[in-house]
Amino acid sequence: MNRAAPVPPPAAATPYAFVLDSLHGRAAPGRLVASPTGHVLASTVALPGVPPGPLTRFGLAVTDATPESAFGEGPAADRFAAGLLDAHRELLHATLGHALRHLEGRTSGDTTLLAKQLVAGQLADIALRLAEDAAVPQIRRHADRAARWRCHLRLVGIGRDLLRLLGASGFLADGPAGDLHLAEVAGNVYLHPDTEDADE
Amino acid sequence: MNELREAAPSAGADLLDERIRELADHCAAMAGRLREIGRRLDRDPDAIVEFLDEPQVRFPVQGMLPPQYRSVGEFPARLVEASSTVLGQVVATEQVSYGDPNVLLASPGPSLSGGVVQALADDAQRQRYFGRLSAAPTHTFFALTEPGKGSAALELETTLTPVPGGGWLLNGVKCYIGNGARAQLGVVFCRRAPGPWGIEAVLLDTTAPGFSGELLPTVGLRGARISRLRFQDVFVAPQDLLGAHRPPSRRGLYGATYILYRFRPGIAAMAIGCAQAACDYLRTHRRSLPRRDGDRLDGIEDRIAAVRHRTYAVAADIDAGTVDVAAIGAVKARAARVAEDATRLVAELLGPASLLEHPWLEKVYRDVRAFELMEGTTNLHALAVFQSLLRGTGPTDRPLAPERAVDGAPRH
């Protein structure tokens, strides 16, 4: 059953799985939105009883769509897809802030890593790419699934570059890396354009 | 597992000698079983204890042991010997990682610390360390990285302070240490005095009072059991100081750099193995790709072939006595990047929800990100490459001689 169980309201540093729940609630109140492939991703709180899988430890449950899911093309799916991209972007902004704080606290020699020209330049580039992505006109960003996928790929690239700057802490599941992994998976499931011609 | 074997890459290497090629084939044949075990380890990293008797788990660590501590008669001696060189270790690691890198990292054995012991220890210390490893499955760790300083050996803050009557007390924190929290034995780098020659390496039994370790939750490569270690007034006896018989300039820091340079190509090999495995997985599951997608995949495989070629070359150089720090770091950094790019491309080309419908892909997609962080990030190695450019010895100035060329083309 793909009715949404009650979940906590989103807060500032909300784990991504709960952000996903909130997106479901906004896109299709009382229901969960299914991907075009017939999958539903939500928090383990929203989908209790789903058998554990590799993403369970990240707080994410994966199940199949049911007749009660908001399924296929339509306004709910569009709202959900747009929300996914917005959530990914917000997560990246939060991670950028985290990176600034983290790198300020790391030192090399007599200076912080934040003061290193190489690092400063990379952070600035990330900020510029985020700003550039935000400036893509809505009509282009949401023109079709391919447009959304392009946006998703841009955001994934920005996220990977950010995580590299975090060093080993950028590989911890309980930090930005865990949430960004879920954002990548969610995009892969909900935003990937169909590639029906792939085997032609 | 036929599908996996059909897709396994050739170790390839036109100019690898026959023994190394045989080693590669030997390891390639293990890939199927290693992938099964790796899948289990992703769910439960401590499940490695269920597989300790399997040859696929036991073989890869044999070459890291001194000859007198290796298993006798269990594996072809010539292959074990071949795997004890840096090039042999790289070729074997690539093939093993094509199956799954978690198994190698989760396995008991010498790890980096064994290399330090081989490089620095006196006879009694070697016997203590390797004798214990050969007597029973023993996890070990190599503790260099610290929370605020990363792996900058010169800046480490863990201290070794003398105590009346002899010996020292060890205090500090180490972070992102593979197998740290489940190890029985390890090597800790610490500062006894200011300056580069004040750094020491000590052998530590994890039952020592004051030692504690906690696991850190990682996105992937869970078999490595990345940990945080704390040392609170841990007593270090004089016989635990590695290389005490050597001058300060030939122990401590020397031991760290000696072993890191020799093992770093192995991280590149893990990344290359995973990247090739991802590409082969795609070719297995999508027999036909549109031309544009096929071109993108070919582009990734060009990069894999190139970084494999360079990795074999720097490994052979190390065996020949030439340690090119920038080149070693460069292959690690480039291999890590191509592994990320390969898994991202494969996830894209396998279509919508590929990360759900192909659990192995989702796993390797997470795993490969560790290689960027292991043994120094790309930024660190990029600076070394830049310094080599200033010296006029940059990577573009050093093409491989034809007689050392390596053909790592995959077997399809």
Strand runs of chain A, count: 4
Give the oligomeric state: heterodimer
Strand order of the largest sheet of chain B: 2-3-7-6
Determine the N-to-C terminus distance of chain B. Answer: 15 Å
Strand content of chain B: 5-15%
The whole-angstrom Rg of chain B is 21 Å
Uncertain segments of chain A of ≥5 residues (pLDDT<50)? 7-12
Biggest interface, CB < 8 A: A-B, 45 and 47 residues
What does this structure look like?
- The complex is a heterodimer of chains A (200) and B (412).
- Chain A has 200 residues and is mainly alpha-helical.
- Chain A has a single domain, classed as Butyryl-CoA Dehydrogenase, subunit A, domain 3 (Up-down Bundle).
- Chain A is built from six helices and four strands; from the N terminus they run H-E-E-H-E-E-H-H-H-H.
- In chain A, the strands form two sheets. In chain A, strands 1-2 form a two-stranded antiparallel sheet. A two-stranded antiparallel ribbon of chain A has the order 3-4.
- In chain A, helix 1 runs antiparallel to helix 2, helix 2 packs antiparallel against helix 3 and helix 2 packs parallel to helix 5.
- The longest helix of chain A has 31 residues.
- Chain A is globular.
- Chain B has 412 residues and is of the alpha+beta class.
- Chain B has 16 helices and seven strands.
- A four-stranded antiparallel β-sheet of chain B has the order 2-3-7-6, with no helix packed on it.
- In chain B, helix 10 packs parallel to helix 12.
- At the A-B interface, strand 3, helix 3, helix 5 and helix 6 of A face helix 12, helix 13, helix 14, helix 15 and helix 16 of B.
